[in-house]
Amino acid sequence: MASTQGTSSVMDSDPKNRFKILLATDIHLGYKEKCDIIGHDSFITFEEILKRGQEEHVDFILLGGDLFDKANPSKETYIECTRLLKKYIFGDAKIGFNISDDYEVNYNDPNVNIAMPIFSINGNHDDSNGRRGKSAMDLLHTLKYVNYFGKYTNLNEVHMKPILMSKGTQKLALYGLSHIPDKRLVKLLHEGKVTVDKPDDDEGQFFNLLTLHQNRAYRGADNFIKEEYLPDFMDFVFWGHEHDYCWKPKQNGENAFSLLQLGSSVATSLTEGESKRKNIGLLEISNNTFEYKPIKLETVRPMVFRSIDLRKYELRLNTDDGCDDKTKVKELIRENIEQMIEEAKSKETANEAQPKEPLIRLRILYQHEKHRITSEIRFGQQYNQRVANPSTIIKMTSSLTDRRGEGISNRDPNDDVSLQDYMKHCFENSTNEFEIFTPELLTKVREVLALQLSADENARNMINNSLARACDFLKDTMPKDKANIDRELAKFRDTDDQVLREIETGIRNVGNSNQSTSYGYNQSTPFYVAGQKRPRATTRINVPTGQPSIKDMFKKD
User: Fold this and answer.
1) Are 462 and 506 in contact (CB under 8 A)?
2) CB of 113 within 8 A of CB of 95?
């Protein structure tokens, strides 16, 4: 596949001036290790990654977190991991790049012969835990198998320092941000407590590379990291944790760096995103620009995901042919599974190490209880020895409906449905404006507002009292005749401005009285370069930028 080049600059043809880095993330060694069928999949793929690094003669391998599926893996997992590392990373080959003296690397140890170094941050699965904050990654680092960096034990303040490298004329500043709970990290960013050292680089000779392991996709307010939060002087950002694969680096419009979401190396859930092809990447850097080439992994077990909605098959299911409803549904499911098994064959490669039994997941959305297959595990047993996951091959999911019987979404019930998404749906789909002011929705509004504040009891009481006043106003003025509801709502809008202003004023007053904590959104970049003057932390609680005002929450255009 053609490579992706970072800028219009010309890459140096001399390999002595060019960094060659193999990128991989979310390998999850030990995933489902007790399963006889898929328990060894992660190790097969890990060996392919190490072998590819050898074949490409890379300077080092950079891992984006979650090397292990658990912080304290089993003895069997750890033994197999170290066996593979010994097989591929040791040797007499000369390391072709230099590194700053302030960071201790394994290949500088005279007692260890490292031919292919590995640099790695930790993810949320293999992060440090326990009273002493140690994990399997610390053990690998101590035994000189892996150069573990980007670990932060003080979650009240984060100070990022780069590992400075050079190869010929090319200089590289490698930053690592191991996993920090996203809400905690966002809070630190808003308070200006995340700082980053920038190399003394007046001539712009350093290529700045950041690897991190955080939520990139939206998973609730303040539970993901926005791209604009990242330092604007970065040249390339390697993002771990998200398992979906984006095939080439994305140019960030705000900060002008390139961002790569490589995706996981193995499938750890039966979802559509995990069924996409798995890749690692080859990143080459010279003349302060880069070339990137995706490399398809050939040992990943084939996986096919499909979702069907039984509402689209109503004509077939309602045909009077003497068969009961569940029999018709089972036949439809079998047809789809057979098609999926055939589709999985197209994902097989010529690599003999690739497991051939595919992972198959068919999600069936149903509305009527008569169509639900209650014994999903028993149904899947007919595919024993044909698929890797017969007991989880199908998933019956009831279509979410609102109180008018209309589908809200076809999302899996295991997915998180945020309060904000619920509110947005109600505002966008309500045909009768009176429905917006149901007690259920007012409760949701109260919860959203409370989440934006601290746990201060006075704040919650103020919000509850203010909303109660709004509800009392509606109860007193709403006519029994529904034909006049719109007219009365118009009257409420003419008078509710004062009520809503009091709510917002009360929130700000609570914020001003709570001087110890800042919950405001700072418009400056949340990362601050060490040595520069930081903007003064705000103490005023504001409605976050981009969020609807309280008045907007009550009104519909």
Assistant:
1) yes
2) no
Which of 164, 165, 225, 148 is closest to 197 using CA atoms? 164
Domain 303-409 is classified in which CATH homologous superfamily? Mre11, capping domain (3.30.110.110)
**What angle is formed at CA 104 by the lines to CA 101 and CA 108, rounded to 5 degrees?**
90
525 token code pair: 């970049």
- Give CA–CA dist 11/169, Å, rounded: 12
What is the SS3 assignment for 185? helix
Predicted local distance difference test score (pLDDT) of residue 319: 77
pLDDT given at position 165: 94
Q: What angle do CA 285, 291, 293 make, to 5 degrees?
A: 125
Query: Alpha helices, DSSP H only, in 485-556?
Result: 485-513, 550-554
Nearest to 172 by CA among 292, 59, 263, 90: 59
Contact criterion met (CB below 8 Å) for 119 and 174: yes
Extract the tokens encoding 85: 């590392």
pLDDT of residue 199: 84
Q: Quickly tell me which residue has 């029999």 as its tokens.
A: 327
What is the pLDDT, as a whole number, of residue 201?
A: 67
| CATH 3.30.110.110 intervals, the chain | 303-409
- Residue the block writes with tokens 């405001």: 520
**Domain boundaries for CATH 3.60.21.10 within the chain:** 4-296
Q: Give the containing element (helix H, strand E) for 141.
A: helix 136-142
CB 20 within 8 A of CB 59: yes
CA distances to 40, 351, 421 from 270, in Å: 17, 23, 24
User: CA-CA distance, 353 to 299, in Å (whole number)?
Assistant: 6
Series of mean pLDDT values for 10-residue runs along the chain (557 residues):
53 88 96 94 97 96 94 94 96 91 87 95 82 84 94 88 93 93 88 87 82 87 84 91 81 78 92 91 94 95 94 81 82 95 95 95 89 88 94 85 37 45 55 47 52 47 57 60 55 51 49 36 42 33 36 42
**Coil vs helix vs strand at 413:** coil
Beta bridge partners of 528: 195
Catalytic residues: 125
The CATH class that applies to domain 4-296 reads alpha beta
Does the predicted model carry a pTM greater than 0.70? yes
